[in-house]
Structures are given as C-alpha cells and as structure tokens.
C-alpha cells in the first residue's frame, strides 16, 4: 500500500467509535484513535518508569506496539466482545494489518496479543489501564452500567507489571464514584 493511501486509511481510526461504549449507551464515545493515543502515552511513561527502576526495556519497540495495536481496526472496525463469539477478531486484525502495512509489523502485533515479551506485556497493561481510565471518566460524567469493564482489573493483577504499577491501579479504583 502506498504511504499516502495508508495514512488516509489509518485516519478511519479518528472517526470510528469504540463500540463497547456505544453498546452501553454512551452517546459520543472516544474514537479508536483517542484510545490508541492515550495507550501510547501510558506506554511511554510507564516504560520510562520501568527503565528508571533498572528494568531492561526496548521502549521504542513498546511504542511501536502501542501505535499499531489497534491499526487493523481501521479496516475491520472495533468489534464488540459479544460479536467475537462468532469469529476470530485477532485473526481479522492480523489479516488487515498485513494488507495495510505488510508483515513486518505482524511480530509486534503478536507480541501484544500473546503478551510474549516485556514490551507486549507493557502495552497490554497500558491498553487495559487506558480502558479503566475511560470507564472512570464516563462514570464521573454520570454514566452507569460499566461494571463489566472493571472486571479487567483481574487481568491487570495477573500481568507481571502489576508488581510495579499496582498502586496506580488501586488509586484508580479508589476514584470511582
């Protein structure tokens, strides 16, 4: 795919809304691009914190993972969890990613999905943390019925990075209205 054509297609992420929030009645929820931006920002700052603690981390690689982790959704959209019972969303995203940018970024996507490297685990942690931040913001705006999103805390606790950022997650939980 030509670069300009790719950049235009990636722009779909700015227009596509996160469907999980739409299904919960939030009228103008964040876009996929909004989510991806804050996920990358969280990745940057948590990654720098890990490096300050002496943990070897390829932060450039982690940021690449963060930037492409939802890129396939520019083509297949944000498939809500209930719909994923009918087909494999990850395979759809992998196929879209390869068609959009070739296979060179597939290893990064797989690191994220499989949490097979520290960088992949960091981005998955950042992705889930970002979703909880968004849930908190919606709840503080008066929306309810978002309990299922908070169940991801259990997944955060299983991530080895919880050891370093558990206090951050606990503080987030304490801010719930």
Describe the protein.
The protein is globular, with a radius of gyration of 16 Å. The model has no long low-confidence stretch (mean pLDDT 96). It has helices at 3-10, 12-15, 19-23, 32-52, 59-68, 73-76, 89-101, 106-114, 118-140, 147-150, 153-158, 162-174. The relative contact order is 0.14. Helix content is 68%, strand content 0%. The chain is an all-alpha fold and 177 residues long. It is built from 12 helices and no strands. It has one domain (3-175): Hypothetical protein af1432, CATH 1.10.3210.
Order of helices and strands: HHHHHHHHHHHH
What is the 3D shape? Answer: globular
CATH architecture title = Orthogonal Bundle
CATH homology superfamily name: Hypothetical protein af1432
Report the portion of residues in β strands: under 5%
Mean of residue pLDDT? 96
Q: What number of structural domains do the residues give?
A: 1
**What is the total tally of β strands?**
0
Low-pLDDT windows of residues: none
């Amino acid at each position: 795919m030509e670069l300009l054509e790719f950049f235009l297609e990636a722009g779909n992420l700015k227009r596509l809304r996160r469907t999980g929030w739409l299904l919960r009645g939030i009228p103008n929820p964040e876009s996929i691009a909004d989510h991806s931006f804050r996920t990358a920002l969280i990745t940057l700052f948590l990654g720098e914190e890990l490096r300050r603690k002496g943990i070897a981390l390829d932060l450039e690689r982690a940021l690449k993972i963060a930037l492409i982790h939802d890129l396939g959704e520019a083509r297949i959209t944000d498939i809500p969890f209930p719909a994923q019972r009918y087909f494999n969303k990850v395979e759809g995203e992998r196929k879209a990613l390869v068609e959009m940018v070739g296979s060179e970024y597939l290893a990064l996507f797989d690191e994220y999905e499989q949490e097979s490297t520290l960088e992949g685990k960091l981005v998955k942690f950042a992705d889930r943390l970002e979703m909880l931040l968004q849930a908190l913001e919606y709840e503080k705006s008066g929306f309810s019925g978002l309990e299922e999103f908070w169940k991801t805390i259990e997944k955060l606790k299983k991530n080895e990075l919880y050891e370093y950022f558990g206090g951050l997650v606990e503080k987030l939980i304490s801010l719930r209205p």
